[in-house]
Specification:
The complex is a heterodimer of chains A (354) and B (325).
Chain A lengths: L5 E5 H15 L4 E4 L7 H4 L4 H5 L4 E2 L5 H13 L4 E5 L9 H8 L2 H4 L8 E7 L14 H5 L5 E3 L4 H13 L4 E6 L6 E5 L11 E5 L3 E5 L3 H13 L5 E5 L2 E3 L3 H11 L2 E4 L8 H12 L9 E3 L20 H12 L26
Parallel strand pairs in A: 2-3, 2-4, 4-5, 5-7, 6-7, 10-11, 10-13, 13-14
Antiparallel strand pairs in A: 1-8, 6-12, 9-11
Helix pairs in contact in A: 1-8, 4-5, 9-12
Chain B lengths: L8 H22 L16 H9 L7 E3 L4 H6 L4 H8 L23 E4 L7 H13 L6 E6 L6 H12 L4 E7 L2 E2 L2 E2 H4 L6 H7 L3 E6 L3 H16 L5 E6 L20 H9 L2 H8 L8 H24 L15
Parallel strand pairs in B: 1-2, 1-3, 3-4, 4-8, 7-8
Antiparallel strand pairs in B: 5-6
The chains are: A alpha/beta (354), B alpha/beta (325).
C-alpha cells in the first residue's frame, strides 16, 4: 500500500466512510433506503450522512423495494448515481422485475446508449434465528445475470475500496454485506481508496490445497488453515471479493499451484458459485487435479430458525478442515472448539435481534 | 421530399395523428412478409393520447413508455427510419436491433425508453423525476401507462413515492379497457374509476376522452404547467380503444372478446375522423390539405421502409456487446 494514512475501522465504519467520501466526490450522488436516517442508521453505516448532505441526498423511503429499484434506474438515466440499501437481502426479492429486466438490461437492450451506474447494498443475515427468510445469500442468482456486477467484501479495507469502485463504476453493482462481518476490524486507507472490481485476493499461500471462498467463509477458511497447519497442511486461500466478474485467472493459478480445489459457498448448493468453480476446474484443469474438486455449501434446504436446528448448518472451520483432510487422504478430523460461544452468533458483540 | 409542417397547432395535431396511423397501417400491411420478426403492438385508434400529450411537452422533457410505444415514440419526435430499422432488426435501429418494437429509444427527443413488462417503466419514470429534482432542473417526466399497469403493485409504490417527494412526474394512462383479451370488468370491481383510486393516493387526477386530441392537448398542457409551477404529480386517465389485435398486425374482433356494439361505437369515434370534423371550418384545412398530407407522409414512410429494408444487419460478432458499459 502506498503512503496513504490508514485508520483501524470496523467494516460498518468503513462503509460509512466510503459513502461519505463518495458523496463529497459526486455532488449528485444520493443514498436512500428504509431507515437510512432512523435512530439505528442501517447498523451505523449511515451515521451523520443525512445531517451532512441533507434530506435531498440522503433520505428515508417507503417500504417499496420494486419501485425504489426502478427509481434508481430513472435517476441514473438523468445523471444521478445512487446507493440504495436493504437491511436484509431477502426483502429485495420484491424488486426482481426491476433488477433483472431493467437494471441488468438497460444498457444492452438499448444498444449501449445509456448505462445504469447504481449500487444496491444488500445485507446478508445469519444466526440468531434469522431463519428461512432473513438469511438467504443468493449471490449465485445475481451472478447468473449478465449486466450485473456482484461484490462480497470480507474486511473493512475491501468494504470501503470495493464500495467506492462500485459507486463510480458505470454499471449496476450489487454489494452484499455479511452481517457477521460488520464488526470485523482492519486498517483502512483514508480518502478516495478504491479496490478494483473483479480482482480476487490471495489470503494465504500454502501449497497443499486451494480454498476458494467469499464473504464470511473467508474467515472460516483462515481458521481452518490454522487447524490444518498444525498437521503440516498448507492452504492456498483465495477471497473472491467479486463474484461477477469473477477473477478466473487467480482461481486458475490457485488450482494449478496445488492441484486440489475446495470451493466454499455461503449459498445453496444447486447452481452455486462453488458449482461453477468446480465445473471450471474440471473443464480447464482436469489433468492438473490430484483429487476430485470438492464443494462445501449450505445444505439444500431452507434455513430453520430454532437454535436446536442450526448447529453445524453452515460450513465451518472444522468442516472445511475435515474436507481438506479427506481430499488429502489424511485421518484427522476436527471437533468444534468446546470453548467457543453459542454457534448462532459471530461473537459477544452480537446481541440480536438482527 | 421537403415537407412543410403546418404552423397552426391544431393542424399539426391532426397531421401527426394521421402520420402515426399511416405508419402503423404500413407496418400492419408489411408485417406478414416476415421481415419484422418481433412482437409488435400497434397503436391504431390510440393516436390522440400520444399526440396530444407530446404537443404539451418540451423536447427536453423525458418520457418512458410501454410495450405499445410506437405512437408515443413518434409523437415525441422519435426518428421514423430508426423505428422501422429497429423493427427490421437492423444496426441502424434506434436500439441497434437489440430491443425490437418493445424497446424504443430516441435520446435526441427525450424518449428515454419503452419496455415490455407491464408497469416496468413506472418507477423508471419516477426516477427520472427524482433526477430532475436532484439536479434542480425544470423538466417534467412523462410516464405513459395502460390500464393494466395500474393493477401492478409497482404502480402504487411509484405513485406514492412521487407524491411523498412531490416530484415533477406526469402519469398518462391510456385506458383501452383490455389487458390483452381480459376486460376491465373482469379485472377490477364494477363501478370503480381508475382515476378515483389514484386520487386517493394523493395525485392530482382527471379523466378525459382519449379520442379527442384537442382535449388531450389542453388537459396535458394544464397539468404540465401545474407541475412546473411546483404542484403535485398529476395522473391523467384517457379512455380510448385499440382497433387491432393486442399484439400483431390484424384485426381480431372475429374472436368475439369485445362486444360488437362497443367496437362499432369506438370506431365511429375514431380520433382522426373526429378531429377532422372539428376542423371542418378551419381556414387552413380542407380535403386537399389532407390529400397533400397523405402523399407527403406516404413518401416519408416509403423512404423509411426502404431505409430499414436495405440497412445492414448488426454484425453477429457484436452480439455480446453492450452487456457492460
Amino acid at each position: 500500500m502506498r503512503d496513504v494514512p490508514t485508520t483501524q475501522m470496523k467494516v460498518i465504519e468503513a462503509i460509512r466512510n466510503g459513502l461519505d467520501v463518495a458523496m463529497d466526490l459526486d455532488p449528485h450522488l444520493i443514498c436512500y433506503g428504509l431507515g437510512i436516517d432512523d435512530p439505528k442508521r442501517i447498523f451505523g453505516s449511515t451515521v451523520g450522512l443525512a445531517e451532512k448532505f441533507g434530506n435531498g441526498r440522503v433520505f428515508d423511503v417507503p417500504t417499496s423495494e420494486a419501485a425504489m429499484t426502478g427509481i434508481a434506474v430513472g435517476a441514473a438515466l438523468r445523471g444521478v448515481r445512487s446507493v440504495t440499501v436493504h437491511q436484509r437481502l431477502d426483502f429485495f426479492f420484491l424488486a426482481m422485475d426491476q433488477l433483472i429486466n431493467n437494471v441488468a438490461k438497460w444498457h444492452f437492450m438499448f444498444g449501449g446508449q445509456r448505462s445504469v451506474p447504481i449500487v444496491i447494498r444488500l445485507i446478508l443475515g445469519r444466526g440468531w434465528g434469522q431463519g428461512p427468510t432473513h438469511s438467504q445469500s443468493v449471490h449465485s442468482w445475481f451472478a447468473h445475470i449478465p449486466g450485473l456486477k456482484v461484490v462480497m467484501p470480507t474486511n473493512a479495507a475491501d468494504a470501503k475500496g470495493l464500495l467506492l469502485s462500485a459507486i463510480f463504476d458505470p454499471n449496476p453493482v450489487l454489494f452484499l454485506e455479511h452481517r457477521w462481518l460488520h464488526e470485523a476490524v482492519s486498517d483502512v486507507p483514508s480518502g478516495d481508496y478504491r479496490v478494483p472490481l473483479g480482482q480476487a485476493r490471495i489470503v494465504s499461500e500454502g501449497g497443499d490445497v486451494t480454498i476458494v471462498a467469499m464473504s464470511f467463509l473467508v474467515p472460516e477458511a483462515i481458521r481452518a488453515a490454522g487447524l490444518l497447519a498444525r498437521h503440516g497442511v498448507g492452504c492456498n486461500i483465495i477471497d473472491l471479493r467479486t463474484i461477477r466478474p469473477l477473477d478466473w485467472d487467480t482461481v486458475s493459478a490457485g488450482i494449478l499451484k496445488t492441484g486440489r480445489l475446495l470451493a466454499l459457498d455461503s449459498g445453496l448448493p444447486i447452481c452455486s458459485v462453488a458449482s461453477e468453480i468446480v465445473a471450471f476446474a474440471s473443464e480447464r484443469h482436469f489433468q492438473s487435479l490430484k483429487s476430485a474438486p470438492r464443494r462445501l455449501t449450505m445444505p439444500d434446504h431452507p434455513e430453520p430458525t430454532s437454535f436446536g436446528l442450526t448447529r453445524g448448518l453452515h460450513p465451518s472451520a472444522e468442516s472445511i478442515a475435515d474436507t481438506v483432510c479427506e481430499m488429502l487422504g489424511l485421518p484427522h478430523r476436527f471437533a468444534p472448539d468446546p470453548n467457543a460461544g453459542p454457534h448462532d452468533v459471530p461473537g459477544a458483540w452480537f446481541k440480536g435481534p438482527f | 421530399m421537403n415537407t412543410q409542417l403546418p404552423n397552426d397547432p391544431s393542424l399539426r395535431l391532426v397531421r401527426e395523428m394521421l402520420r402515426i396511423r399511416m405508419v402503423e397501417e404500413a407496418i400492419a400491411r408489411e408485417y406478414p412478409k416476415g421481415e419484422m420478426r418481433c412482437p409488435t403492438h400497434l397503436s391504431v385508434g390510440q393516436e390522440a393520447v400520444a399526440v396530444g400529450t407530446a404537443a404539451a411537452l418540451e423536447r427536453t422533457d423525458p418520457a418512458v413508455s410501454t410495450h405499445r410505444a410506437h405512437a408515443h415514440y413518434l409523437a415525441k419526435g422519435g426518428d421514423l427510419k430508426r423505428l422501422l430499422a429497429e423493427l427490421f432488426g437492423k444496426e441502424a435501429g434506434c436500439a441497434r436491433g437489440r430491443g425490437g418494437s418493445m424497446h424504443l429509444i430516441d435520446l435526441d427527443v427525450g424518449f428515454e425508453g419503452s419496455t415490455a413488462i407491464v408497469g416496468s417503466t413506472l418507477p423508471v419514470g419516477v426516477g427520472l423525476a427524482l433526477g430532475i429534482r436532484v439536479r434542480a432542473e425544470a423538466a417534467v417526466a412523462c410516464i405513459f401507462l395502460g390500464d393494466g399497469a395500474m393493477e401492478e403493485g409497482v404502480f402504487y409504490e411509484s405513485a406514492n413515492f412521487a407524491v411523498v417527494r412531490k416530484l415533477p412526474a406526469l402519469f398518462i394512462c391510456e385506458n383501452n379497457s383490455y389487458s390483452v383479451y381480459s376486460p376491465l370488468t373482469k379485472r377490477q370491481p364494477h363501478g370503480r374509476q381508475i382515476h378515483d383510486v389514484v386520487r386517493a393516493l394523493g395525485l392530482t387526477t382527471a379523466a378525459h376522452d382519449g379520442n379527442d386530441v384537442f382535449g388531450v392537448a389542453a388537459a396535458v398542457k394544464t397539468a404540465v404547467q401545474a407541475i412546473r409551477d411546483g404542484g403535485s404529480p398529476v395522473f391523467l386517465e384517457f379512455s380510448t380503444y385499440r382497433h387491432l389485435e393486442h399484439c400483431g398486425p390484424y384485426p381480431d374482433d372475429n374472436l368475439g372478446y369485445r362486444p360488437e356494439k362497443d367496437v362499432a361505437a369506438w370506431k365511429a369515434r375514431d380520433p382522426i375522423v373526429q378531429a377532422q370534423e372539428r376542423l371542418r371550418d378551419h381556414p387552413g384545412f380542407s380535403g386537399e390539405v389532407i390529400e397533400r398530407w397523405r402523399s407527403e407522409i406516404a413518401a416519408e414512410i416509403d423512404g423509411a421502409f426502404a431505409f430499414a429494408r436495405t440497412a445492414p444487419w448488426p454484425d453477429p460478432s457484436t452480439r455480446a456487446e453492450y452487456v457492460y458499459a
